[in-house]
């Protein structure tokens, strides 16, 4: 059994599986630098005070990684996928990601560590039981999981910053195939090109209405 067959077996039975070095450390470092540099671009990120983080829907490097990793995602899942969207997030000291599941366009998801400044790896938890499974991701590692089914969360972050990108897909032959490209004309297109109502829940999962969150810039 090769690595992808093992990961596919884990994904099928548990709903999640780890892929080590899905992208190289060099690529992860470039993406981290880009994410940090963009903090000086006014309005590039949306503040997320509920997480103590800032986020960016469809950052271009993140969208490129979304496409680059699609074959590996399909190998782990064992079926054809459509890419939906990427979401880049920079967490600050004290950040917390509450336990949750995602919207349908996050049917099959990956959380990928890009870079950080902290003394230790920040655990990501996934699973239906209260304790969940602790997952430690080095830069370039990612966890594939059923985003709309498997609860996932992170406890308090002790460090200066943590850069993470979320990559979302749907099954090409599944019930959510209509969310291909997250209802945009194509990958890399901005939020304003989405077919999403301004009173709909925001695409970033903040719990706010789209018009009061990422839709402000649309």
Q: Can you walk through the features of this model?
A:
It is a single chain. The protein is an alpha+beta fold and 218 residues long. It contains four helices and eleven strands; from the N terminus they run αβαββααββββββββ. It has a seven-stranded antiparallel β-sheet with strand order 1-9-6-11-4-3-2. A four-stranded antiparallel β-sheet has the order 5-10-7-8, with no helix packed on it. It is globular. The chain starts with a helix and ends in a 47-residue tail after the last strand. The mean pLDDT is 92.
Short structural description:
The protein has helices at residues 3-14, 25-37, 60-68, 70-77, and strands spanning 16-19, 46-48, 53-57, 81-92, 97-100, 108-117, 124-126, 133-135, 142-145, 152-154, 161-171.
Main beta-sheet strand count, sense and barrel state: 7 strands, antiparallel
- Strand order, largest beta sheet: 1-9-6-11-4-3-2
The overall strand count is 11
Number of helices: 4
Radius of gyration: 16 Å
Percent range for β-strand residues = 25-35%
How far do the termini sit from each other? 47 Å
**SSE series:** HEHEEHHEEEEEEEE
Q: Which percent bin holds the helix content?
A: 10-25%
Average pLDDT rating: 92
What structural category do the secondary elements indicate?
alpha+beta
Show unreliable segments.
none
* Shape verdict: globular
Oligomeric state as shown? single chain
């Amino acid at each position: 059994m090769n690595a992808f067959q093992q990961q596919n077996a884990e994904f099928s039975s548990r709903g999640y599986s780890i892929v080590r070095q899905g992208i190289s450390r060099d690529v992860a470092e470039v993406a981290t630098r880009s994410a940090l540099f963009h903090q000086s671009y006014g309005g590039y990120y949306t503040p997320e005070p509920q997480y103590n983080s800032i986020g960016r829907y469809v950052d271009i490097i993140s969208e490129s990684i979304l496409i680059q990793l699609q074959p590996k995602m399909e190998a782990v899942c064992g079926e054809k996928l459509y890419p939906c969207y990427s979401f880049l997030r920079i967490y600050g000291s004290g950040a917390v990601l509450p336990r949750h599941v995602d919207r349908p366009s996050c049917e099959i998801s990956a959380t990928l560590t890009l870079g950080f400044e902290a003394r230790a790896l920040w655990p990501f938890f996934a699973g239906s039981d209260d304790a969940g499974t602790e997952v430690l991701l080095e830069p370039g590692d990612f966890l594939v999981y059923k985003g709309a089914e498997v609860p996932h969360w992170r406890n308090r972050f002790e460090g200066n910053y943590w850069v993470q990108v979320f990559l979302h897909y749907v099954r090409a032959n599944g019930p959510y195939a209509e969310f291909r490209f997250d209802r945009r004309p194509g990958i890399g297109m901005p939020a304003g090109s989405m077919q999403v109502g301004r009173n709909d829940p925001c695409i970033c999962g903040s719990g706010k209405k789209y018009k009061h969150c990422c839709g402000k810039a649309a």
